[in-house]
From TrEMBL:
PROSITE patterns: TATD_1, TATD_3. The lineage of its organism: Bacteria, Bacillati, Bacillota, Bacilli, Bacillales. The keyword Hydrolase applies. This is TatD family hydrolase. Its EC number is 3.1.-.-. It comes from the Bacteria.
Length: 255
C-alpha cells in the first residue's frame, strides 16, 4: 500500500472527475492521501474531502507566496482546525523566493508564526521551499522546529542539506522529479537518505512523474515514485511502499 503524503485534490484541475481520480488511486493500492490546504478556499475544500473519504487526511497552513494576505484571523482559524481529528499536520508553509508577490520579510514572519503555532498544538509541519534553502534551514533552527519535526516537501536540494534536515527531525519527501532522467540531485538524495527517513508524494496536479510528464498528475502515480526509489536503492517496490507508509503513519499519528 502506498501513502501519497502531499496531494492537491482540492485543486480546480479535478473539478470534473475527482471521483474517477480517487478510484484509480484505490485501484493502484494507494491506502492514504494527505490533501494540503494553503489558503482559505483550499483549506475548506481539503476539510470537505476528509469528511467524505475515510482514507483522506488534511494538512492546513498558509503558502509563502500568499503570506502577504494572511491575517491574524486566518492564523486563529488554522489553530481551531488543528484540533480536528483528521488534520495531521500544519502547512504547507515556508519560503518562496521565486515568485515575488509577498516580500521576503513578510514570508519569514508568517513562516515563524506557523512554526510557533505547530509547536503550540504539537503537529508536524510541511515545508515548501523554492530558492530559499539557507533561510529556511536557519529559521527552522532558530524556531526549534525539530521539536515537532515534519516534512521537507518535494525536496530538491543537495544530499548534504537533506542530511541536515534529517538531523533536525524532518523526513525527506520525494515526488515526480526523482523519476526525471536529468534530475541528478533527487536521485542522489534517494540513494543516501535512509529509507526510514523517506516519504513519497505526488504534489498533484503538478510535477507529474515520467512517463506521464507534462500531463496532469494524480495520486495513482505515486507508485512510479516508489518504483524509482526502489530501483535506486536496490530494494523491492513492496519494501519502499511499506517503509514509506509506516513512516508517514508514524509522523502523522495515524494508527
Amino acid at each position: 500500500m502506498f501513502f501519497d503524503t502531499h496531494a492537491h485534490l482540492n485543486a480546480e484541475q479535478y473539478n470534473e472527475d475527482l471521483q474517477e481520480v480517487i478510484d484509480r488511486a484505490l485501484d493502484e493500492g494507494i491506502s492514504n492521501i494527505v490533501v494540503v490546504g494553503f489558503d482559505r478556499p483550499t483549506i475548506e475544500k481539503a476539510m470537505e474531502l476528509t469528511e467524505k473519504y475515510d482514507f483522506i487526511y488534511a494538512s492546513v497552513g498558509w503558502h509563502p507566496v500568499d503570506a502577504i494576505d494572511m491575517t491574524e484571523d486566518d492564523l486563529r482559524w488554522i489553530e481551531e482546525l488543528s484540533s480536528h481529528p483528521k488534520v495531521v499536520a500544519l502547512g504547507e508553509m515556508g519560503l518562496d523566493y521565486y515568485w515575488d508577490k509577498s516580500p521576503k520579510d513578510i514570508q519569514q514572519e508568517v513562516f515563524r508564526k506557523q512554526i510557533r503555532l505547530a509547536k503550540k498544538v504539537n503537529l508536524p509541519i510541511v515545508i515548501h521551499n523554492r530558492d530559499a534553502t539557507a533561510d529556511i534551514v536557519e529559521i527552522l533552527k532558530e524556531e526549534g522546529a525539530g521539536e515537532v519535526g515534519g516534512i521537507m516537501h518535494c525536496f530538491s536540494g543537495s544530499p548534504e542539506i537533506a542530511k541536515e534536515c534529517v538531523d533536525m527531525n524532518f523526513f525527506i519527501s520525494l515526488g515526480g522529479p526523482v523519476t526525471f532522467k536529468n534530475a541528478k540531485k533527487p536521485k542522489e538524495v534517494a540513494d543516501v537518505i535512509p529509507l526510514e527517513k523517506l516519504l513519497i508524494e505526488t504534489d498533484c496536479p503538478y510535477l507529474t512523474p515520467h512517463p506521464f510528464r507534462g500531463k496532469r498528475n494524480e495520486p495513482s502515480y505515486v507508485k512510479l515514485v516508489a518504483e524509482q526509489i526502489a530501483e535506486i536503492k536496490g530494494l523491492s517496490v513492496e519494501e519502499v511502499a511499506q517503509a514509506t507508509t509506516e513512516n508517514a503513519k508514524k509522523l502523522f499519528g495515524i494508527n
